[in-house]
Each structure stands twice: as structure tokens, then as C-alpha cells.
Specification:
Rossmann fold; 7-stranded mixed sheet; 26% helix; single chain; alpha/beta
Length: 155
Amino acid sequence: MAHGTAYWLRLLYWFGFGYLAVCMALMVGRRGRVIGIDHIKELVDLSISNINKHHSDLFMDVRITMVTGDGRSGYRASAAYIAIHVGAAAPKLPDILVDQLAPGGWMIIPIGKVFSDRHFVQVDKDLNGNVEIEELFDVLFVPLTDRKYQLGHLN
């Protein structure tokens, strides 16, 4: 990531209180940028508040941008991304996120249906746009859902 500008898309689902966005922003350095997205506005607001407590400079430098939106669709406004980290399990690999990877980019994402085996998957896009997928290990993650489903299961 030392070469050029690094763009990260961090999808914040359920537990995204800003910590990982800060970690990624510190990793990519001053020339990098982290986009955090969640469909729950209150989680986005909490993340912003948490980051402002100790790392407000990351917002002033525009190294972190937090948005409310459907992370299942990614965030095309800032694509293509060198790296995408998805923090919730998708039932299958979302083509829309693979499309937002830059050539030479990679994504890590948990894949698997609700109440079934889930695998942490690494997706690599080579410089010609060819995609390789590798299952890394079994994981437990909350499902990648819409707002209505997520909030309905909290009650």
C-alpha cells in the first residue's frame, strides 16, 4: 500500500463502532482513505462520535469518511478500492462488491447462509481483472442484511 493512494471500503455491520476504521486509516497513512458504511444511522453516528474522541484528525485529513447506506451495494462514489473488508456474512459472493475492486485489489468477506457454515473468503483481482477466490477458514459472523431485518431481530 505504499504505492499510490490506498482506498479502503469498510462495511460496518453490528459491531462497527469505528475502531477498525481507525486501524485501517492509520495503516493506509496520510495518502490513504477509508470509507465506512452501515445502514444503521445510529451506528454511523456512534462511530463518528467514538473516532472524534481520540482521532478527529482523521476526519480533518479526510482519511475517514463514514456514510449511512446499504453496504451490500458497496459505495460506488469512491470506487475502485484497493481493499474491501466486509464485516458481516453474505449468503454468496456479491458481484457488486467484486466489481468495485481495483485491478490488483483484494477483499475479505465471510460467506455462508444464516444458520449454516460460514467461511472467511479472500478475493483477489489481478491487474487484468481476473478474480481468484480462496476459502481461508471457518468463521461466525452476523448476516449481511437490510436495516429492517437487522432491527427486527434485535427486539
